[in-house]
Amino acid sequence: MRLAVLGSHVDSSLSPAMHRAALAHHRIDGTYDPRVVDAAGFADAIAELRSGVLDGANVTMPFKRDAFAQCDLLSNVATQAGAVNTLSHRDGLLAGDNTDVGGIAAAWVEADLSQDAPVTVLGAGGAAAAALIALRGREVTVVARNRERAQGLADTIGGEIGVGTWGEPVGPSVVVNTTPLGMQGEPLPHQVLQSAVGLFDMAYGNEPTPAVVAATRSDLPVAAGLDLLVAQAALSFEIWVGLRPDTAVMRAAARAELSLRISQERRP
Fold first, then answer.
1. Is 246 among the residues known to form the active site?
2. CATH topology of domain 2-98+233-251
3. Average pLDDT over residues 168-186
């Protein structure tokens, strides 16, 4: 089985470590390789998927919408999200799925985040769209620097979704950060966490983000970026292989890779 992750910055992806560990644990003969691709490289990978040279692939930015447009078959969730992050070869057809939505739902439950508290979603991009789909039916407010973009996203997803103003305090809610804030050690706006009852921080780096550190110190339930990555990876693996992987194995592999990177960064 040949698997890959496709994108413009996948050289730092944790997906290879997680999927290689899962393949080995379940004694499946296969490979999972990172492929840094431009538009031409992405087109080549699509051809390999259609022909069966590649059995499956994860897709990261900026190709999730391109992947959506290329698929012959789309899951219901991928159709709702308008984006694909998991590709597979099925009887000569290219099938597209989106594990962002299911990954958010799974990580939410695993972290024991509130199932009935209001939710504040920070950001208005693809990750925010996935969060809104996963949280459909909840009391949700979207907050982004570009208020018009936030309103456009709310209108696209539909339902009772409020739109807030960036920089203003939010009421008691589970805060879902879908922005890059935190990946380089930046804090979220101070007032965002003041009345939070939980945090789902999708940003991640080699070490916990300042928001995750602050929320943990305040004894709030927290789902971190790594939790989402593991949940997404498990769903992709199940799509390709047909069995649910041992997520503890995937998580341990990801943490080991992160520890290695941290030690390399600190090495004189």
1. no
2. Rossmann fold (3.40.50)
3. 88
